[in-house]
Write a structure and sequence with these properties.
About 35% of the residues lie in helices and about 20% in strands. By secondary structure, the chain is α/β, with parallel strands linked by helices. A six-stranded parallel beta sheet has the order 3-2-1-17-18-19. Strand 2, helix 2 and strand 3 form a beta-alpha-beta unit. Helix 2 packs across helix 13. The chain is elongated, with a radius of gyration of 37 Å.
């Protein structure tokens, strides 16, 4: 079973990351193959928490779009360049292919051949010259080895069907591949001329005298069960398939390419199948047009969000198995029923803690530490109006398992999380930024939790300039709420055209950049509902 990915929203916060890690632990404990991921850069507060509990940050995943690797393509459908034409035909028939990639020993794509090329070679070529190895000849002619000295066989093929006196001595040389029956005089002449290869027909043998002479002159001799006419048909297709290879205008598809890009390619270049390659051009097989609708969607579980705008790119191409969230219902829909756990609590981690209890899975110290940190972060150590009794009870239980003093660790953690040192204006805006779509218009709301508004106030003009730029590039309004957990309220910055939105949303007679609203602590419960009410 392919790995199921668990992740939170873009611009991941502590709840988003820690909930994904904890839920992944729970699912794996239940025998489900899952992996936590992040879909954005984590903030300093989350880094602090992960370091505190010795937990590596989940790896980044860019999207969950369907890729070529998700298609049920024909794995291993390629032929080595030194394979025989005959074996290639058989392989193509077994795989139901009318064309096949050719690779070298390291499976690097070197060419391509189709049935038309093979048919033309067999039907139209004189097939006098042959380049192959002895193993290919022995296999296709079902021959036995009498003398063997060379691995590679190259030469001109001669079939002896005429009387001895009609054979010119000049015909026999070191580049001759001789097919012959019981003409022992000619066989001896051929050995004396040190021909490249003698193929005896109908399982014939030669005496020891000729064998010793052949060994001395290093002449390769094999004996086939087939007649001269049969060998005449088979011998040409013992040649290397690379002899027919076309390396020009090779159209390949990378294993990591997107399915939608592949569809566009097939409309421009119409083939029946395409070689699938890695980045280093190693061939993995072929994808046939008949595979187009045979693919497996990536399976995902979402935590701490249920809006497309806040989620990963390509989510509409994935299979959502489950959503665990504590926000208002968003716009994500599914074709099939799923497990959707949504509860009006202050933190997703509270819901996940309850799942551990329900499933009777023991919580290790590090996981407990991550979950309690998420609750502290999202509820601002229970000072946010989103805080519920469930959050407080869960946090107290988790703090005991994690062996931390809830209040002492909470203040320490929030202090670290609220530090803005070393962060650029853009980084501060985007570290907890969410996009909401209302009436086909986008609204951006950023939350910065800090106890040091004075540092932001010094550059307030630069912040407003950045918000104006964002507003002119796809956002109807862009707002920043700087939450101070000690003062228990938030300062507001906004793009210059959003003054009335702020005034109406929070019933203010006058507004100005950096205005402080006491008690305004929650985007989910206070900020967003107030803004949506005005927009509706």
């Amino acid at each position: 079973m392919k790995t199921i990915y668990i992740f939170g929203h873009k611009n991941p916060d502590t709840d988003s990351v820690c909930s994904a890690i904890a839920l992944a632990y729970l699912k794996n404990a239940q025998g489900i193959n899952v992996a936590p991921k992040v879909i954005g850069q984590i903030n300093n507060g989350t880094k602090y928490v992960l370091n505190k509990f010795n937990t590596p940050c989940p790896s980044y995943i860019n999207d969950v779009k369907v890729q070529i690797k998700d298609l049920k393509y024909e794995k291993g459908a390629f032929i080595y360049e030194n394979e025989s034409i005959g074996n290639t035909i058989k392989f193509m028939k077994d795989k139901d292919l009318n064309a096949i990639p050719i690779v070298d020993k390291k499976k690097i794509l070197t060419g391509y051949v189709n049935l038309k090329d093979i048919v033309n070679y067999i039907a139209l070529e004189k097939n006098i010259k042959l380049l192959t190895n002895l193993e290919n000849i022995i296999n296709l002619l079902e021959a036995k080895t009498i003398c063997s000295f060379d691995n590679e066989i190259e030469g001109n093929t001669i079939y002896i069907t005429c009387p001895d006196d009609q054979i010119s001595k000049d015909v026999l040389n070191e580049n001759t591949i001789l097919v012959i029956g019981d003409r022992y005089n000619i066989i001896e002449k051929a050995i004396n001329k040190k021909v490249k290869l003698i193929i005896l027909t109908k399982d014939r043998i030669i005496n020891n005298k000729l064998i010793k002479k052949a060994q001395k002159n290093k002449v390769n001799i094999i004996s086939s069960k087939f007649s001269t006419s049969e060998i005449c048909t088979l011998l040409p297709i013992t040649g290397y398939i690379k002899n027919l290879s076309a390396s020009n205008s090779l159209t390949t598809i990378n294993i990591h390419s997107y399915y939608t890009d592949f569809l566009s390619l097939t409309k421009r270049i119409s083939f029946t199948n395409y070689p699938v390659v890695k980045d280093n051009n190693e061939c993995l097989g072929v994808v046939k047009m008949t595979h187009m609708q045979e693919y497996e969607k990536k399976k995902v579980i979402l935590v701490d969000h249920n809006n497309y705008s806040q989620s990963i790119d390509g989510l509409e191409e994935a299979q959502i198995l489950e959503i665990i969230d504590h926000h208002n219902l968003g716009d994500i829909g599914t074709n099939n029923p799923i497990t959707f756990l949504c509860k009006p609590v202050g933190c997703t981690a509270t819901i996940i803690y309850e799942q551990f209890i329900k499933e009777r899975v023991k919580i290790p110290r590090d996981i407990a530490g991550l979950l309690v940190s998420a609750i502290i972060s999202d509820t601002l150590l229970f000072s946010s109006p989103t805080t519920t009794k469930d959050d407080i009870e869960s946090a107290n239980a988790l703090a005991k398992i994690a062996k931390v003093d809830l209040n002492e660790y909470g203040i320490e953690m929030l202090k670290e999380a609220s530090s803005i040192k070393g962060l650029t204006i853009k980084e501060l805006i985007y570290q907890d930024f969410k996009t909401y779509s209302v009436n086909d218009k986008n609204y951006g709301i950023a939350v910065i939790t800090t106890m040091d508004f004075d540092e932001i106030e010094k550059d307030i003009a630069k912040y407003i300039d950045e918000l104006n730029k964002m507003s002119s590039s796809g956002f109807k309004a862009v707002l920043i709420f700087i939450t101070d957990i000690l003062k228990k309220g938030s300062y507001i910055l906004y793009n210059e055209t959003s003054e009335n939105l702020i005034k109406n949303a929070f019933n203010l007679p006058n507004v100005y950049e950096g205005i402080f609203i006491e008690g305004l602590m929650s985007r989910k419960k206070q900020i967003l509902p107030a803004i949506l009410k005005v927009l509706d």
